[in-house]
Write a structure and sequence with these properties.
The complex is a heterotrimer of chains A (257), B (323) and C (388). Chain A has 257 residues and is α/β, with parallel strands linked by helices. Chain A contains 10 helices and 10 strands. In chain A, 37% of the residues lie in helices and 26% in strands. The mean pLDDT of chain B is 90. Classes of the chains: A alpha/beta (257), B mainly alpha (323), C alpha+beta (388). Chains in contact: A-B, B-C.
Chain lengths: 257, 323, 388
């Protein structure tokens, strides 16, 4: 990984919820325009880590963090003081959640809202273009083009998740964070999302937390294994799955947890 | 055997529930019928005039002082009806933004300890009986209005006003609106807090995750998502406003005037009487049959108004939801 | 001479001992009227087997108005149906004009006139019994009444009559009293034609009504005081001025000697007895109160409104007047209970209960109850001036 190729650099990160330490000395570099999968058993810290990257963890009471997470050369904890800078950071990093969470409004508005908020735009024509483009990017447009004014909550789970991804695309982020995006979806919807992720990595840096080893195998470029708050192993996919170095990783891959 | 026993038990329970439901329904029906029978004497004579004609205060006086047999059974509550709508609408205009604003601050923009304190203060305020608000209105709001808006010259001028003479004493539509607004604000705030808290956290996360500012997340995502809760709060607050008697009778002036648009700002300084207040204020004269019937007629109009209101808001709510 | 002197002194001393001896024998004697103990400042005394009590206490609790004629040394007790004269020291008394004989005469002890409780109570129509075990005299007058009674008329008197009826029915569960309004006229015509047992009036009966046999008994008085803000420079008004102010004819304080400012009228809601009083004593059907006047539900609310507005004018029952507002000198007379009692103050009217013929039976008892200590407390609590 060359320096210009690094999207997110993490150095010596520790974090706590209250007194409980949840991340221990994490060091990691995430490559641009690739898929980085974070795996590990439940409560291993992978989701906490993901949510630290766009500081959405700030919402959690008692959350503390130390170390450096730099995105585009900016230390997102020390350099960002103003709310507007935090907004700017989050606009660079879309996030897709475990349970699809489209806003309780129309499909159209779900996409129009973040776009017009970011660009301070109200030109209907420009918004229309972006909505159609983003829906097409996630292959949802043909399924919903007749009912853009229908409530997004009426879509199926898989459609909702793709809508959430499309919603991220409207703000043209550099990075998209996925928190187990397929865990609540059926296999067919899951495959559709995975195909989509492979396409998206041409343009975006993707970080995905997943429970599903097979999924990581199918889509990831690099894989990180978290265990009890530590990053046990982090390497390219092939190396990770064929020649894991650490004993814990081997046990995990063998399903011995 | 066992399942048989249980079925019998279930059946008994079902029947008890049925009987109590029927009893409840009968009780409500009885109340309606009772009020309507009592009101019929005046309603049959007044007809639609009961809400399209004015002069309620004078009609009460005349009914009370005329000998039995000479009393009029015609009453016109246009002023009361309009005052009821105006005070409630005005109070909502005042309380809805304030209440929602406070709720947003409590839920989203204050430190936990402060939010908890504010929350309990609001719930306390919501439970204060209306007569206390009436007293505060009488001691603070009415004198304030008098000192700020009513000059001695204006007072003299309106004693001779060609459209409608009146005494400007500070007790007024405006005082009613302010007191009622302050009174329903805590209810609205408490219900809005509940509505906002009921919105799934994931909406907020999603909004913030998209780089939308906290304020915009609240106004663009959380509040629209809490819409039906907000509506419920507004309907409840409006219901309390329409039915409020004591506080309004203490501060609104007690005369069945119809505020005149031609008076400009003095429109709001007009002493008024609402339907619910009229029932309280005039109850001393209820020994006269015509007045008793007139007050029950006010009750009928009051019931119909609140029913109409909750019905129309439900329609509006449905329309909003469709969107 | 010396002998005689000694004899007189000894005799006087002996007499004193006897008197003190007989009087102190009555320690611990109680008097109950309709089940509740009579609290007297002078304890009852026993003389020759008769219990004597201060005449005021027993008479007033049975609805009697008492007076003391110093010239003839006579105690006089008047109720709705009885008229009792009791000369001190004599065994002959007069009850409704008939002479009657007592075992023990009314006596003055320590400057207080004591009367035999049994004779007085029975003369007034009560039942008296003696409970030797508890040393108690039980007087029964307002309890145990049965039958029905229809009372109606003046809405001013109505609340007093209603509250009295409630209290009386509590003492006598077998009695049913219905109280209705309709105005003094209704009370008069109802009492005349027999549809009412008792008519209530807040205005004096006409001569023709008295001629038709109606007997009015006064139960209290209603006095109205016109009030203004303490900062108002106007001190006195005539009835004519007050009438013109309240009818809206006079709209500015400068027209009655005040400053140039609007007069803000405060009145009462229809149904108020005070408003009735104001109308009948001041407006007198010559004019009506201006419809723009602000109506209030109670005396304190009028007072509060006037106390807080320099330009306000209102009216109260006299009992409510205090220093938070200024009572207007009416027709040159200061509004006070004393001036109301002497009749100098103009805005006073009597409240009457009237019956066809001299009241008797339950009607008499009802009227006497309203005139009793308890009834007069009720009357005072409704802001009227009691008889005593």
């Amino acid at each position: 990984m060359t320096l210009s190729n690094i999207s997110i650099a993490v150095k010596n990160v520790d974090s706590w919820y209250g007194e409980k330490q949840v991340l221990k000395n994490i060091n990691m570099e995430i490559e641009k325009k690739s898929i980085t999968a974070l795996i590990g058993p439940s409560a291993c810290g992978k989701t906490t880590f993901l949510k630290s990257l766009n500081r959405i963890n700030d919402l959690v009471k008692g959350f503390k963090i130390s170390g450096i997470i730099s995105v585009g050369g900016q230390d997102i904890y020390k350099d960002i003081k103003k709310a507007s800078d935090l907004m700017f950071l989050r606009q660079k990093m879309g996030m897709v959640f475990q349970i699809p969470n489209p806003f309780p409004m129309s499909i159209y508005k779900n996409l129009a809202l973040p776009f017009s908020e970011k660009n301070n735009l109200s030109s209907r024509k420009r918004i229309d273009e972006v909505v159609v483009k983003c829906l097409k990017d996630v292959h949802l447009y043909d399924e919903v083009k007749e009912r853009l004014d229908a409530s997004a909550l009426d879509l199926s789970g898989g459609q909702q998740q793709r809508l959430c991804i499309a919603r991220c695309l409207t703000i043209t982020p550099e990075i998209i964070l996925f928190d187990e995006p397929c865990s609540s979806l059926d296999p067919i919807s899951t495959l559709k999302i995975e195909d989509l992720l492979r396409e998206l990595k041409e343009q975006y840096t993707l970080v995905i937390v997943t429970h599903n080893l097979e999924q990581a195998k199918r889509i990831a470029d690099r894989v990180g294994f978290f265990y009890q708050g530590e990053l046990i192993e982090y390497s390219a996919k092939d190396k990770f799955f064929t020649r894991p170095r650490h004993e814990l990783t081997q046990k995990y891959l063998a399903g011995k947890f | 055997m066992k399942s048989n026993k249980r079925m019998v038990k279930d059946n008994i329970f079902k029947h008890i529930l049925l009987v109590s439901a029927v009893l409840g329904g009968l009780m409500i029906a009885f109340i309606f019928v009772f009020i309507f029978i009592k009101a019929w004497g005046v309603l049959s004579v007044s007809g639609l005039g009961f809400i399209t004609e004015t002069g309620f205060s004078e009609q009460i006086r005349d009914s009370y002082y005329l000998a039995a047999g000479e009393q009029t059974w015609f009453f016109g509550t246009k002023g009361l009806f309009i005052a009821t709508l105006l005070t409630t609408a005005g109070a909502l205009l005042l309380a809805v933004p304030l209440g929602i604003g406070t709720a947003v601050i409590v839920c989203e923009f204050s430190h936990r300890a402060i939010a908890r304190m504010l929350s309990s203060v609001i719930r306390l305020l919501a439970s204060i009986p209306s007569i206390i608000y009436g007293l505060i209105g009488l001691m603070v709001v009415v004198p304030y209005i008098k000192d700020s808006f009513i000059s001695p010259e204006l007072q003299i001028q309106y004693l001779y006003d060609p459209i409608m003479r009146m005494q400007l004493s500070g007790k007024s539509l405006l005082a009613g609106i302010i007191v009622l607004g302050i009174m329903i604000m805590p209810i609205l705030t408490a219900l809005t807090v509940d509505a906002i808290k009921a919105v799934p956290k994931s909406y907020k996360e999603a909004g913030l995750g998209l780089g939308i500012s906290h304020w915009r997340v609240v106004t663009k995502i959380l509040l629209p998502a809490a819409k039906s809760g907000l509506f419920a709060g507004i309907i409840l607050a409006a219901g309390r406003g329409i039915g409020e008697a004591i506080a309004l009778s203490m501060v609104s002036g007690g005369i069945s005037n119809v505020p005149q648009v031609a008076h400009g700002g003095v429109f709001f300084l007009t002493p008024v009487l609402t339907l619910a207040s009229a029932i309280v204020n005039k109850s001393e004269a209820m020994s006269v049959a015509a007045i008793e019937s007139a007050l029950f007629s006010c009750g009928v109009v009051l019931i119909l108004t609140s029913m109409l209101f909750s019905l129309s808001t439900r329609l509006v709510e449905r329309a909003v939801k469709m969107k | 001479m010396k002998d005689l002197k000694t004899k007189v002194i000894v005799l006087t001393m002996m007499l004193c001992f006897v008197l003190v001896g007989t009087a102190s024998a009555a320690e611990g004697i109680k008097v109950n009227v309709d089940g509740s103990a009579l609290n007297m400042d002078v304890a009852p005394v026993m003389q020759e087997g008769r219990v004597l009590v201060p005449f005021r206490f027993i008479a007033e609790n049975l609805g009697g108005i008492v007076s003391w004629d110093a010239g003839s040394q006579t105690v006089k007790i008047v109720t709705a149906d009885k008229n009792v004269s009791l000369p001190v020291g004599q065994t002959t008394a007069t009850v409704n004009g008939t002479a009657q004989t007592l075992d023990v005469p009314a006596t003055v002890v320590d400057g207080r006139t004591l009367v035999p409780v049994r004779f007085v109570a029975e003369s007034l129509g009560a039942d008296v019994s003696w409970d030797d075990a508890t040393q108690t005299v039980n007087v029964k007058y307002f309890s145990g009444i049965t039958g029905t009674l229809k009372v109606g008329g003046s809405t001013t008197v109505l609340p007093v009559a209603q509250a009295s009826a409630d209290a009386l029915m509590k003492l006598s569960p077998g009695l049913s009293v219905t109280v209705t309004g309709g105005g003094s006229g209704v009370g008069t015509s109802g009492a005349k034609d027999g549809t009412l047992n008792i008519g209530m009036q807040s205005s004096d009966l006409k001569q023709e009504d008295k001629a038709a046999g109606l007997v009015p008994v006064s139960v209290g008085r209603d006095a109205i005081v016109v009030i203004v803000n303490k900062a108002n420079t106007v001190e006195a008004l005539t009835r004519e001025q007050i009438k013109k102010i309240f009818s809206g004819e006079i709209k500015n304080w400068q027209d009655v000697g005040g400053k140039n400012a609007a007069i803000v009228l405060h009145t009462r809601e229809a149904g108020s007895g005070t408003l009735d009083g104001f109308n009948s004593l001041i407006m007198k059907k010559e004019a009506e109160i201006d419809a723009i006047a602000e109506p209030h539900a109670s005396n304190p609310l009028v007072k509060q409104a006037v106390a807080n507005d320099e330009n306000a004018i209102g009216f109260l029952s006299l009992g409510h007047l205090d220093t938070s507002v200024k009572g207007i000198v009416a027709e040159g007379v200061v509004a006070s209970e004393a001036n109301a009692a002497t009749g100098q103050y103009p805005f006073v009217r009597n409240l009457w209960l009237s019956t066809k013929g001299t009241p008797s039976g339950q009607a008499a008892k009802f009227i006497n109850f309203v005139r009793s200590v308890k009834g007069q407390q009720i009357l005072a609590s409704e802001d009227f001036i009691p008889l005593r």
